[in-house]
Amino acid sequence: MPKVSILIPSYNSVNFLPISIGSALSQTYQDFEIIVIDDGSTDNTKEVVRSFIDRYPSKIHYFWQENKGLAVARNTGITHSQGEYLALLDSDDKWLPCRLEEEVRILDTDASVGLVHGRVTCIDSNGNEVRTGKRHPQFLSGYIFDNIFLRKEDIACPTVLFRRSCCEEVGMFDVKLSRLGCEDRDLWLRIAQKYKIIFVDKVLSYYRKSSQSMSSNQKKMIEARLYVVDKYCPANDQSKRGLRNKALARIFRNIGDEFLLKKDFVNARQEYQKAIRNDPLAFWPWINWIKAVLNAR
């Protein structure tokens, strides 16, 4: 039985899938299986994966399903996997060779840790490095539910390694988010409620950013973020009202920032006002509201 199961959901990503699979096969840590979940692709994904299976029959397994979205595909992968640890690798992303070795060591050493993650470098559709974002390690290790929920920091999906036992306790990916986004963050929140998280302060993966990626669909991402806020802090739960308001303020501020970048100062001002109503003491909504007001003149 392999120690790690690598889950690669794929939908019409045949241009990048061989790079993704190749980066998994090139790991310095080799006790793993690769589960490719074909989410109803209409390209030649099956043939490409078959060419890898012919060369690595004991390493790679292929499963096809009707197109149901990312959360369902990942759950299919978990169901068919055998590993004690689970690693996510989207079909257009790429790992550095040390990715698994760095993180398996941590989970093997500390049973209180449920999830390990690290840094990513963004690449474009041609594989060129775009940027390595600034991270704040003080928000990324420990019992960090509030930090993730309030988006003081985020967990980079292509770097995550987590225990199968976490899913057995908190559940798998929420299929209601399958076509919206945030399905990964939702699971990390549930894990963070019960387990310690560890951040590896090294670049472990390349994250491919393109106009077709789900994270680029702003309307869906906002809908997903609002769903997640309601899930953990329902409007009728007075004990969580403060946390809910701060989370909503962050969402409206982020929307305002998008409008500000587009020089849409009217809509930017309206979103910052929503943020301020939810969290009057937050600093940046006030500052950016002033910018929107001054630039609109």
Summing up helix and strand content along with how strands pair, one would put the structural category as alpha/beta
Radius of gyration: 20 Å
The count of β-strands is: 9
N to C succession of SSEs: EHEHEHEEHEEHEHHEHHHH
* Share in helix: 40-55%
Summarize the structure in short.
Strands 1, 2, 3, 4, 5, 6, 7, 8 and 9 form a nine-stranded mixed β-sheet that branches. The chain contains eleven helices and nine strands.
What this model shows, in words?
- This protein is an alpha/beta fold.
- It is 43% helix and 19% strand.
- It has eleven helices and nine strands.
- The protein has helices at residues 17-25, 45-55, 70-80, 99-109, 145-149, 164-170, 183-192, 218-232, 241-261, 265-278, 283-296; strands at 4-10, 32-39, 60-65, 85-88, 94-95, 113-123, 129-131, 161-163, 196-208.
- Strands 1, 2, 3, 4, 5, 6, 7, 8 and 9 form a nine-stranded mixed β-sheet that branches.
- Helix 1 (17-25) links the parallel strand 1 and strand 2.
- Helix 9 runs antiparallel to helix 10 and helix 10 (265-278) packs antiparallel against helix 11.
- The radius of gyration is 20 Å and the shape is globular.
- The mean pLDDT is 94.
Keywords, please?
297 residues, alpha/beta, 9-stranded mixed β-sheet
Give the SSE map.
Blueprint: E1 4-10, H1 17-25, E2 32-39, H2 45-55, E3 60-65, H3 70-80, E4 85-88, E5 94-95, H4 99-109, E6 113-123, E7 129-131, H5 145-149, E8 161-163, H6 164-170, H7 183-192, E9 196-208, H8 218-232, H9 241-261, H10 265-278, H11 283-296
